[in-house]
Amino acid sequence: MSNQSPCPHISGCEMFTQFKLSDSLAVWKLRYCEDDYERCARFQRTCQGHPVPATLLPNGQLLRK
Ligand code: SF4
Predict the structure, then answer these.
(1) Which residues form the pocket of ligand 1, taking CB atoms under 6 Å from any ligand atom?
(2) How far is the CA of 23 from the centre of ligand 1 (A)?
(3) Is the N or the C terminus of the chain less surrounded, counting Cβ atoms within 10 Å?
(4) Closest ligand 1 atom, CA of 52?
(5) CB 38 within 8 A of CB 51
(6) Domain that holds residue 53
(7) For 4-56, what is each residue's pLDDT tens digit?
(8) How far apart are CA 35 and CA 48, in angstroms?
(9) What is the separation of C-alpha 2 from the centre of its chain, rounded to a whole number of angstroms?
């Protein structure tokens, strides 16, 4: 179910900054940050008070360079 509102963590999210700068990563921004952020592993970990790895993607996998 879509929230249809942007993620409230956008301003402090390192990964969102990368999504904005890279065309190949922009799909994450559309699918999670601007649509269904409650599914995002980064959002969930932050809400639970867990540390968030810098390269953690919304689907729970780590971004490879
Ligand atoms: S990556 Fe996750 S926590 Fe970061 S802005 Fe997008 S939805 Fe929010």
Answers:
(1) 7, 9-10, 13, 15-16, 32-33, 37, 40, 42-43, 58
(2) 16
(3) C
(4) 3
(5) no
(6) 1-65
(7) 799 999 999 999 999 999 999 999 999 999 999 999 999 999 999 999 999 99
(8) 21
(9) 15
CA-nearest of 9, 36, 65 to 28 is 36
Q: What is the pLDDT of residue 64?
A: 86
How far apart are the CA of 25 and the centre of ligand 1, in A? 12
pTM of the predicted structure, to 2 decimals: 0.92
Number of the ligand 1 atom closest to the C-alpha atom of 46? 3
Residues 6 or more apart from 50 whose CB is under 8 A from it?
A: none
d(CA 41, CA 61): 9
